[in-house]
Amino acid sequence: MKTLKIALALAMAGGMAAAHADYTFGDVSINQLNWSPSTLDKTQSPTTAFGAKRNFQYLEAEGGAGRSWGDVYGFFDLENWNRHDPQMKSGDQRYTFKVVARFNLTEVAGLPIKLYTHVYDTRDSDTDPQNHFFDQNRVLGLSTDLNFGKVWVHPFLGRHQEMKYGQGTHMNGYMAGYVAGYDFDLFGQSFAVTQWHETEFDRNENHFTGVADPAGVEQKRTGQNGAVSLWWNATKHLTTGVQYRYAVNKLGTSGNEYAWIYTAKYNF
Fold first, then answer.
1. What pairs with residue 143 in β-bridges?
2. SUPFAM superfamilies from the xrefs (predicted)?
3. Alpha helix ranges (H) inside the chain
4. Over residues 196-218, mean pLDDT
5. Which of 16, 77, 191, 199 is geometrically suited to a Cys-Cys bond with 71, CB 3.0 to 4.6 A?
6. Residues 48, 25 contacting (CB under 8 angstroms)
7. 265: buried, middle or exposed (CB in 10 Å: 19+, 13-18, 0-12)?
8. Which residues, in sequence order, are CB contacts of 256 under 8 Å at separation 6+?
9. How far is residue 215's CA from residue 242's CA, in Å, rounded to a whole number?
10. Do 214 and 45 touch, CB atoms closer than 8 A?
11. Are 223 and 175 in contact (CB under 8 A)?
12. Are the C-beta atoms of 80 and 58 separated by less than 8 Å?
């Protein structure tokens, strides 16, 4: 179960945990994402030019490994896998992947210093140039590992570059964030609480969240993005969980956005 906990903390938080021993993990999952009513109302307004939201399902495959040189994590999502939704702007399925790799550099005051790299890419399957969308984020910076008993936190800070359809590729300020986790037992069962969070700041004007929304909310140079999750290791191979997904001035919309994600996962 210890191996499962390590894999859970890594995979569910969307990042890396510090493990001194070699490890490898992988899993597949089915997920239902439901946006809050306020998010749906705001983003589906007739005057909203971009970022319209709909509830959807997605399939995910993820995995990672830790070695003496550092650690690597990645996932691939197939969104809207079960339907063709004509209400979506693209009307088609979407593909998302993320790869995070951290490379051991040195130690300072007992803390490991790691080279941090990540690439996040999302795009739809619409071949119509008028509707096709893709957005790729790249980050290069530094990371470390902090541990407080059973709680672990792994922050990072890096330079942010973004490539978006119709806007080209620009340096887009900076990104700071962390992944964190806490494993615990309750009623003889194994659980974990995890969080991932990203803050974009000093963003390039080409990569604000879009035009002003109907309420006249000013577009910001800072955006927030993340999720808080509770996971239950029901068996060695089955994990279920619920995630509270949030974003502020991100995901194509100004202001706040919230969603709940329900997950069933098979661990290899």
1. 114, 156
2. Tsx-like channel (SSF111364)
3. 2-13, 37-43
4. 70
5. 16
6. no
7. buried
8. 38, 39, 246, 247, 248
9. 31
10. yes
11. no
12. yes
Is the distance from CB of 191 to CB of 206 less than 8 angstroms? no
- CATH classification of the domain holding 189: 2.40.230.20
Query: Tokens 């800072």 label which residue?
Result: 222
Q: What are 114's two structure tokens?
A: 């790691």
* 201: Cβ contacts below 8 Å, ≥ 6 apart: 173, 174, 175, 176, 221, 222
Mean pLDDT of the 7-15 span: 40
Residue range(s) defining the domain that contains residue 58: 2-267
90-110 pLDDT tens trace = 456 899 999 999 999 999 999
Which residues lie across from 163 on neighbouring strands? 136, 169
Tokens of 28: 């597949």
Number of domains in the chain: 1
pLDDT at residue 102 in the model:
98
Question: To which residue do tokens 């079960």 refer?
Answer: 82
In terms of Cβ atoms closer than 10 Å to its own Cβ (0-12, 13-18, 19+), residue 59 is middle
Q: Is the pLDDT of residue 6 over 60?
A: no
pLDDT-derived band at 165 (thresholds 50, 70, 90) equals confident
